[in-house]
Amino acid sequence: MLNISATIKSFFLDLFETDQQEKENFLRISFGIVSTVIILILINFVVLSIYPDSTEAIMMHAKELIHPFHHDAWIWPEPIERMQTFITLIFIPILIYVNIKIFSSKLFSRILISNSMYFANVALWFSFLAILFYLAFKFDDPNFIWREYWSIYKIWLHQEIRIIFKTMTGELRFLVTLIIFPIITYFIFNGVPKKYNKSLNWTLYSLILFFLLSMFLLSICNRDNYISVLDNLNTVLYPISQVQQGRGLLADFTTQYGLYSHFLYPLFKLINVNVVSFSITMSALTVISYSLIFVALRKIISNKLVVFFSFFAIIYFSYFLHLFSGSFDLRYAFNPIRMLFPALILFSVFTYILNPKKFLYLLIIFLSSLSILWNFETGVICFLSFYIYVLYEKLADTNLRSYIAEFIKHHSIISASILILTFLLFSIVIYLQSNSFPNWNLLVKYLAIYSISSFSSMPMPVFHAWNLVFLVYLYGIYIGLNSILTNKKNVLDSVAFFLAIFGFGISSYFLNRSHDFNLIPVLYPCFILLAIYLSKLLAHSRRENLFRIKNFLSVSVISFVLVTIFVQMMQPTKIINSLTHRIPDILSNRLTNEFHNNGVALIKYNVKPNDIVAILADEDSLMYLETQTSSPFNIPGSTELVLKTDWDKLKYSLLNNKSYKVFLSGTYLKSGEIPDSRYYPIMRIIDDHYYLDDWFGNWRMFVPKEYRPVSDIGVKATATYTEFCPNNCKDVVNNFIPIENFPTNTKYVKFDFDLSEPITLNSIMIHVINNSQYDGTLSTLNLNELTNIGILDSKNKQFINTESRTDKLNYKVKNSFSVLIPEASININACEPAIIELIYNDNKKIKFRAYCE
Hints:
With 853 residues, the protein is of the alpha+beta class. The chain is built from 31 helices and 15 strands. Among the domains are: 338-455, no CATH class; 594-704; 717-852, Immunoglobulin-like (Sandwich). Helix 9 packs across helix 26 (549-569) and helix 14 (275-300) runs parallel beside helix 16. The radius of gyration is 35 Å and the shape is elongated. The strands form 3 sheets. Strands 7, 8, 9, 10, 11, 12, 13, 14 and 15 form a 9-stranded mixed sheet that branches. Strands 1-2-6-5 form a 4-stranded mixed sheet. A two-stranded antiparallel sheet has the order 3-4. A hairpin with a 2-residue loop joins strand 5 and strand 6 (699-704).
C-alpha cells in the first residue's frame, strides 16, 4: 500500500513539474498557432465582406455548360468560400513563418512565464480542443438537404461522421476500449517487455496480413456482384474497355479519372481483361498502396505500437469503415486510382528525407510527374508537395540570393524539365497504342469545367471534424518551419512539414465538395502526422518529461483515439461473412444477372469482336468489355455524360449514323423508376431514323434506315411484300390445302425474295415490326407456337412445304422465290419493314429487311 501511495504521489508530482524551456516553447507554439488562426479568421471575414458574390452569374454560366438534368442537384456555386479557401491555403505557411520569427525574437524571450501561466495555457488548449470536438459532432451538417430523387443513403453521405461517432460511443465495443486503453497506453509509454516482443510481433503482423488479405479479396468482383453503386464501376471501367480496343484517351475521348487505362494497357493485353481480371489488378494495386504506407511508417517511426495502431486507423477510415457500417462501396476511383501514387510518393519522400540522395530526388520528380498522368487530381498534389518540400529544406540557407538562385535555377528547371519529358514520352506511348497524339487540354477538361461551373460544390460547415484535422496540419507546418528556422532540423519535423502540405492538398476535394463522405478517405495523412507527434513525445530525451501534464495529456489523447479505432477494427466476422457470400461466385465467375446476360448475348450474336457499335445503356462499359467492341462516340461513357456539348455530340453522331448498329437497354430511358428527360431527344432520333432489327429480353438492336454495312463474302438478298389474292387465294394457288399451323380462311401477304445466287433453303423466319416494336414471329421451323410460312413455287401456283414442319426444308431455290403469310400477322397499312432471317446451305445465315410495296 505504501508503494502504491508513493507511486501515485510521484506521478502527480511529475505531472505538475515544469521546465522553463518547455514552458517557453509551448507558449511560443500556442501564440504562433492562435495568432495564425485569428489572422486567418480576420482575413476570411474581410474576403466575406468585400469579395463580390457572383453566385448568380456562375449559376447562369454553369447552366450553359451542364445538361439541365443535373442543374438542381449539382450546381451549388460558392465563389466567396472558394476564394476564402484559396487565400487561407496561401497564407498559412506565410503567417506561420512570420509568427515563428516574431515569437522567437529576443523581445518575446524577456517575458517571464510563471507556472500558473503555463498550466492555464495547457488547460485552455485542451479545453479548446474538447469544445471543438463537441461542436464538430453537435451540429447537423448544413449540406444535409433532402431531394426527392436521392436515395436514402444521402443520410449517410452528409451525416457520416456524426453516425460514426454515435456508433463508436454507443456500442459495447466502446466499453472494451475503456478497459484496454490504460493497458495499451502503459505499453506505449514504457515499451513492451522483451520477452513479449516476439509474441506481439507475430500477433500484430498477423492482423496486418489478415486485413490486407481481406482488402484484396473484398476488392475482387465479377460483373454481377460488384458491391454498391454500379455507376462507380462503370466510370472507371469505360476507359479500360475502349483503350483495350485501340482507342486513345485525349485523342478519341477523355475521362475524369486520368490516364490509368494506358498504364494498364500492356498488362491487360497479356491477361485478357474482363471484370474479374480488372478487379484482381485493382485489388493488388490497393494492397500495394497500403503496404507502401505501412513500410513508410516503419521507416520513420521506431515505436512499433505507434506504427501498428496508426496503420489500423488509416485502413479503417480509408477502406473498412463502410464495410462495418453496412454501406461498403469498392470505389476503384479511390482505391487504388487515387491512392497508388500518393502512397508511392509518401514512401519515396520518407526514404529521401532519411537519405537525401540525388538519384532519389530525380526519381521522386519523375514519379510525381507520372502521377499527374495516372490521376491528375492527386498527381498535381504529389508533384507540388515535393516541389514545396524542396523549397522548405533549402530555407536553412541564410543567403537569400543564393537561396533564390539555387531554387529557381536548379530545382525549378529540373522539375519542369522532367515533367515535360514525362509528358513527351507518354505522348509517344499513346500514339503507339492509338495512332493519335494526345490533346493535353483534354486531361484537365473535366477539372476546368467543374471548377468554372462550381459543379458539385457544397458549402463548408462552420463546426465540423475538419476543424480538428485542420489544426493537425497547421501544427505540422508549424513544427516543420520552426525546426528549420531555429536550426533544430530533424527527420520527423521534416516529414511532418511534407505531410501537412500534402494533407492540405489531398483534402482539396473535400474543401470544395464538403460532405463527410469526401473527408473520410483522405484522413490518412492526418493519422500519419498523429503518429509522428506521438513518436516525437515518446522519443523525448528524458523519459520523465512524458509524465509532465502537457506531454501526458497529448500522449493519452492520441493513444485513446488510436486504440478506439483499433477496437472498431476488430470485427472479423463481418469481413468473413462478406467474403463467404461472394468469393465462390467470383471463383466460378457465376453470372446471375439475366438482364446483363441478355445484353451480352444480343450484342455477340449481331457483331464480331473489334466492331464499332453504339451501346446506349447505364452499364455500357460492362457490355463493351465483355463483347470486345468499341464505341463510335468521342465522348466519355454514360456515367460521365453531364456536359451539354457531349450530349450534342451523341445526338449528332446518332443522327448522321449510317455504318454502326445501336444497342439499347430497357433501363436506358429511366433513372430508377422515373422517366429520364435526358433520353427523350435520343429516342426521337431512334424512332425517326432507325429500324428495330433484333431483340433479346429487355434489349433492342436498331440499325439506321440508310444502313450501309461492310459487306461480307456470301449471298446477298433483298425482299419486298404486298397484298396477295385479296379475294380468294384458293383460286390462285392450286393445291391450297391446310399446311401445318397455317390459317386458310384469311387474307394473305406475299413476300418476294431476290438472291444473288442459288441456295439450299433450310428455314425462314419473319419478324414482324409494328410501331417500331417487335410484334411477333412466323417460322418454317418446328415451333408449334409460331405460325407457319407457306412457300410458293416459282410460278406462285402451289405450295411446296405441305409436309410436317422440320428443322431443315432442304428446298433448292434459284435467284428468287416467294412465300405467303396471313395478313392478320402483319399491319399492311403501316407498311413497316419486316426482318427476315434465312438459314441456308447447312446453317449459314443471312439477315436482312423486307420492305412493303
